[in-house]
Amino acid sequence: MSESPTAPPSPAGPPSGTASGADAPLAYRLLTGPDDRSFCERVSAALAEGYVLYGSPSVTFDGDRVIAAQAVVLGTGR
Q1: CA-to-CA distance for 33 and 23, rounded, in angstroms?
Q2: Distance between CA atoms of residues 66 and 24, nearest Å
Q3: How many Å apart are CA 61 and CA 68, to the nearest integer?
Q4: From CA 67, how far away is CA 30, in angstroms rounded?
Q5: What is the pLDDT of residues 39-62, one digit of tens each?
Q6: Where are the beta strands (DSSP E) in 1-78?
Q7: Which of 9, 36, 64, 74 is the most buried (most CB within 10 A)?
């Protein structure tokens, strides 16, 4: 009689009492996109969620439009 193979152990989930990986806010985010109102609204929304700006914004020109990038990190007061 052969035994069925066993599945490898699954990686440990988050510690008890913490949010799952999918629900937990990221500690670092890099927001990018065309330098328009929508980009500014996404940065503003991140700030309202408790993120703080990290470093200076960066911009480049892709031949058609200006593309902006801004890093944000989750504030420590959260």
Answers
A1: 24
A2: 32
A3: 9
A4: 13
A5: 999 999 999 999 999 999 999 999
A6: 28-34, 51-61, 66-74
A7: 74
